[in-house]
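[Meeting: bench + compute handoff]

Bench side (C.D.) handed over the final construct sequence. Compute side (W.E.) agreed to return the predicted structure before the next meeting so the bench team could plan truncations. Sequence as handed over:
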Amino acid sequence: MITHEPSDGSVPIVAGESVADIYVDGNDHEVATIAATDLGDDIERVTGRRPAVTDSLAELSETAVIVGTIGRSAGVERCLQASDVDAAALTDERESFVVGTVDDPLPSLESCVLIAGSDRRGTAYGAYELSKRIGVSPWYWWADVPTPDRETLYATEDLERAGPPSVRYRGVFVNDEDFGFREWAQQTHDPATPDGIGPETYERLFELLLRLKANTIWPAMHEGTKSFYRCAGNREAAERYGIVVGTSHCEPMHRNNVDEWDRETDGEWNYATNAERIREYWTDRVAEVAGQENLFTVGMRGIHDSGMPGGDTLEERVDLLQRVIDDQREILDEHHESPVETVPQLFCPYKETLELYRNGLEVPEDVCLVWPDDNFGYLRRLPTGEERARSGGHGVYYHLSYWGRPHDHQWLCSVPPALTREELHRAYRRGVDTLWMANVGDLKPAEKETEYFFELAWDVDGVAERSATDWLAEWAAREFDPAHADEIADVLAEYYRLALARKPEHVGWNAVYPNTEKNEPTFSAVDHGDEARRRLEAYERIDEAAAAIREELPEKYRTAFFHLVEYQIRCARAMNEGALEAMRSRLYAGQGRTSAAAYADRSRAALDRIDAATERYNASSNGKWRGMMSASPRDLPVFDPPATGRVTDDQGPTLEVAVEGTAAVAGTGPRTRRLPTIVQGVDRPRFVDCYNRGGGTIEWTATAADDWIDLERTSGTFETDERLWVGVEWDAAPDSRTTGRIRIAGAGRELEVAVPIRPRERPTAGGVDGDSEPGPKRTPVFVESNGRVAIEADHPTTVRQAETRWEPVDGLSRTTGTAMAGRAIDGPRVDADAIRERAARLEYDFEADAGAVRVEVQLLPTHAPTESTPHRYAVAIDGAAPTVVDFDANGGEHDPQWQRNVLRSSVRSTTDHELDRGGRHTLSLYAMDPSVVVDRAVIYTDDDARRSYLGPRETRDRRLE
């Protein structure tokens, strides 16, 4: 749409001394003038040249930008007559626009850039789209993204049309604003409104929503925030900007009960005992706002996200809520000129109201049913086939930020865009296209996730076609520098992967309501190559990569980069380091390691880095964001310094050894130090920790008794500890199982470590023993190692598609980054008696001995679309009949299993099987129902095989790669 050199048919916007005027009709909607004026500001930001904004066609000459709404703008009507735009077709669509060039639209104009909207928001979207094309980010103000410097701007010859949006109402809920958004607004951005969030703040937010092609707001509503309607100017600002105002699931009829209901003067908030006063309260607000474009929430809950009072039995509560809705409809009907069936309304069956809906509550057909997620990004419920026929349609209430059980995630937004895409695309395919509402908390630092949410809402199918990583690269190219876009996308993809495994706010392994003490993290510091250390090293890599990218960016981009990328990564790393290094200090203190103190200090230093990063965040842009970011939201226990361990023994240097897989307390470990078996082609080197239980320096040597043992080092000195990696030179190793020895000497002691190995012949790429199906070439092969066969879902030996499908989804695995999802999103379901014929299957060839095995499948905690619908996969080994597993755990926020699932982003489902022979076998996973997402599988051949947080590393024979 925009170039910087003239071309055939292009229209100069800024060229040399020439700057095109911007025309907007004075009779157009007010938001058209706002958007046209902002476009002028944006052109000046990019070029330094300011266009004149005029409502007079007579003042225009040579070139101009014509902005307006069809039917409300004389200039637009003249341009349409000279263009090929089908004005009638455009007018019939909501929130749509065209942007393009028109020749000779007026006698005084040689050409113009036309921005024509089908309605007021369509016009605004068109103007802001041109702003984005010239290089102004939607986040130019909210994240201080700088604009490029250009001397010329030309609009290319063409017409682009956009709209209508996929979803009718697309909005944000500013929620849980206590420690960020409100404090910043009241103390920094708009101190003239000390007890509320006023129009100066909301106008900034409304402009952002229009730049993101959104249209709806649920205002902030926590205790201490004055009601949106009680702050002078808020209501009028929404009308000027064309923003639809609604209220959350617990604020019926545009009333903020936390702020506006006074128990002393109004009485009890109970419709069973105080209906007359509550009706008056609702009626007053409806009468006040009925002339504006609104979304009315109907129904009733407690004052603040609590259960509706009144009614002793379920039947009584259903009857009471039915009465509430019926009375609310009468109020709406009385105060609107149009019938109540045409007044936009919604009902959100959230928490306890879902039970009432299930048990007979009749919600009028024209009311939009808004289905909430489970507060962690997984949709609990979607409309049934019968419900999809409702004239009011359906919506989703989706959390990018959450305050509540089992634990908040309000701080560092880490909901993966890939999860948002999968869940919301699934909802859209089931007819959920009336309202999408995102709980964004304080908005910052959820900028990326919010924009992705709105891009999906605007064009669901188009955006869902691309991977989340591709989208992140496009976003980074726009915000910063195309040269670094892929690097930034990769860094963010890894950030989301690590947080999918465990969010930074959840590394205390504790809960809220009530706040509980922190527990021991379950990332293992002794198993699987030191799982905890590998996690910290992954965070270290992306933190250092982000810092390196920042240094290569021009100075003007660095504040925005810190807000949008670096702060989240740095603080996520520090939270994990604070928890896991404290855990290590306690473990090492128990083993008597002198080094325990060093890890305790690292834990404390990590938390200090959070404070420093937060201070930098708030002080950036000359203090513009002071108060926006907190280093410890709600001062939850997870943000407290964790307990650490230290060793106080004053003895001299004392050598001790701990091997991988051993966490014994000092003096209680096995007398024979033995590494886990190293399997050829599968296992990586194992580690041996040499450590000091006293003070002073230890000179150490390591000697391999067998020439096939590969030692990373054979001597050195240390004061606290030294990690020695042990590998195998397989060309020199025996052909059968054996055990080698390492002798480690120092400080007057000599200790021995056993090194068991299992050589294997190079596997072939053929089929499974007894497999009669010709099939494609079959690789890879997974191998039993130390009692387990570990499989990443995206490494199948082969995929056999059927009526259902398995497809890789980038960005949804806690380990490799890619999981396998059952498709189609709203596709067929497979009966248990037709699994082999109709269900797609993932096949994984593995080798193991005969005997009993347990298969653990790790899946994302997605839910079935309705209460009556199963959520299943099936599993089989070799020719055995498939075992069907329904793994949904959708028991509500008090369900312990659901709580475990969402905190670890994983369901662990197990089945028992029997291997009738040793050798090669095939594990098959069948896609029976849509939206089943498999992350990995582990086949346990030994009940004593140690568990860890993520499970064992993949035991694939890498020699076939």
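W.E. noted at the follow-up: The radius of gyration is 31 Å. C.D. will use this when planning the next construct.
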